Fold this protein.
Amino acid sequence: MPAAPQQPESVDPLHSQLQVLRRRSQDVRPGTAEARSIAAELGRIGRGYLEKGDSGRAIELLEEAYGFDEENGLVLALLTLAYVRRTDFPFARFYLDLAEQRAPRAPAEAYEVLGEVYYSLNRLEDAVLAWEHFRRLGGEGPATLRRLTKVRQELALASGQRHFETEKFSFFWDPAIPAAMVERIADRLDAAYLSQSSFFGTELRDKQIVILYSGRSYFSLVSVPDWVSGVFDGKIRVSLDPDGGLTDELSAVLSHELAHAFVRRVSADRAPGWLHEGLAQWWEGRRLMRSEIHDAFRGRSPHTLAELNGNLARRTDRAAARTNYVEALGLVEYLVERHGSAAVACFSRDLGEGRSLAEALRLEFGLTPDDLFRRWKEWVKL
């Protein structure tokens, strides 16, 4: 998914609210009633940044809130979720232990956030219990209550799933899938992990969850189009034919979804959608001739980078999705050809270090976003 566009701090209402709070918090001592009020406000602003996709800023503010009030269960739950979003699971587990201890004295919203944490960790039963408690305490968030219904259904689908772990992955799979096939998939993912880790110059912070489905029951539940066989939502989810073996197509899907995990990790979840999808296709081994890219846009204009990100964030039909994916891959192929794959990896890391898209493009390629779009079109002869 593309990162949400960020407003300049000068017009960001959260930043304005934080400036007011900073003045108010001067000389406030932790543990006082005023400190608890400051912590609650910092938690609210931190949650706002988390919802915008800026987990780094959220962590900074939520840890500050924790310093003012160590007993605030909602702040601890939000800190846990922020670290889960950053795939920093050791810190997430530390704050999760504290959040669970404080939860009985926390507002209903703490259980809402804990449910999302448990779901991210594939602890489905705990997610259901947390969201049910949120509802019993008077929580009325319609989106959360809809998720509770879906996760109950997912939990029913997960009944009987088997589980095993390797050094890098935690696998859950339907019993209809032969164990020998899962072992081959694990070997394939281990090899892909080594290659992608070397390219991006990093490792995933913890074991990546992989869920293998025999059939499309789960994918139908979350309305994934029937032409899609893999999804990354923090977990790698793959629908496969249990009798089909490890085909080249399945290997490509596994590498594609693993690349999403690495892009999210290395960019600190700041990569735009076109970079996510372009690199995921590049790592699955897909390559396009410039003539193929040109032909895909016959009779139509390519999308600007902003339009492309919006398109990739929405569900579309297969024909429309194809041109979006062709353009995303084409952008990555252009950057690799003109600047080298190492520069593309550095570009991804620059985003993770807090640089904006424009800053990272200028640093690695000497381009503005408009320059990239224009030069890519010239390269493709569009």
Summary: Confidence is low (pLDDT under 50) at residues 1-10. Strands lie at 162-165, 169-173, 208-214, 230-232, 236-240. The first strand starts at residue 162 and ends at 165. The first helix runs from residue 13 to 25.
